[in-house]
Each structure stands twice: as C-alpha cells, then as structure tokens.
Design a protein that fits this description.
Length: 179
C-alpha cells in the first residue's frame, strides 16, 4: 500500500507539473551571436487588462476569526464491535496558506484502534457560494466535499466523498462553529 501511495503521489505531482507548464506559442528565439556583447532583454509592460490579484473572501476571513483556537472535549466513541469507549479530543484551528484556508488538526485519544488524527483544510469559493473541505486521516483515509454558504457562526453541513483502506463511501459532517 505504501508503494501504491508513493506511485500515486508521484503521478499526481508529475501531472500537476505537466499541467502547470506554459504553452509554447512561438519557436524559441535563436541564441545570441557568440561575438555580441551582453544583451539586455526589453522590458514588456503588463497588459492593460491584467486583473488584480485575488483577495481572500470576506466569508473566509470571518470564519477564520470565529474558529481560530484550540478546542477540547470529552465524549464517547462507538467501537466497531458496538461498545462505547470514553474519549478525549483536541482540535486546533488557524488560518493558513496566506489566509486562503482554515487548517485544523484533530486528535482523538482513547479509542481501541489507537489515536485518530485528522488534518482538515477548508476554504470558501465565492463564485459558487460553497465551502470546500479536504480532510486526511492517519489511517490513509481522505474526504473531499462541499457545504452550502451559511452565515458565519451558523452550522454547516458538508457532504463529503470518502476513500480509504476500507473502501469508498459518503460522509455527512455537521460543523457548528458556535458549539
């Protein structure tokens, strides 16, 4: 499985690099003559219709303010055999990657299967008015999905596609920043 993951990561990385390469519109310029002195390339002014750099959506800024911090709780987890086990959980949240993502790390202790760790990144897509979430687990699982826009501080419902060692499925995550 480790080799498969490494191969998959390598393929995704190479695909991203291949996609990121600019398309060549013209043949490359010929090299300068050997006897010529240092040449300075002319500067090209930016296009007049160049768009300004994108800004972080207000919804994301406000949600980051409401959720940044460390949260702890105690509760019960249902084990695969149906029994309940007392657990403790710690969730740390902060704005990350130039404030374009809310990064969370969740650690749940006390379960029979060991410590559960989940790294989550959430952003807001202003064009579609949707929250987008990516989550990765220390057991090889991943979740990707969206939630409709809600006012800051109100519960959100993420519909996520899951994939992991036990197969694929769907997961509904209820996130309540006011809780």
């Amino acid at each position: 499985m480790k080799t498969f993951s490494q191969i998959t990561f390598a393929l995704l990385t190479m695909s991203a690099v291949a996609v990121a390469q600019p398309k060549a519109d013209k043949a490359p310029a010929p090299p300068p003559a050997k006897d010529s002195k240092a040449q300075v390339a002319p500067t090209v002014p930016p296009a007049k219709d160049a768009k300004a750099a994108p800004t972080v959506p207000t919804e994301l800024v406000e949600m980051a303010k409401a959720t940044t911090g460390t949260w702890k709780c105690k509760g019960e987890a249902m084990e695969p055999d149906g029994s309940k086990t007392p657990i403790t959980a710690t969730n740390k949240a902060k704005a990350d990657l130039d404030k374009w993502w809310i990064a969370e790390t969740l650690e749940v202790k006390g379960m029979k299967m060991g410590v559960l760790k989940i790294a989550t990144y959430t952003t807001f897509d202003a064009a579609s008015q949707k929250w987008r979430r990516i989550a990765l687990t220390n057991s090889g699982g991943q979740m990707v999905g969206t939630a409709d826009a809600t006012p800051v501080g109100q519960p959100m419902v993420f519909n996520l596609d899951t994939l992991g060692p036990m197969g694929s499925g769907q997961f509904r995550d209820h996130a309540d920043p006011s809780d």
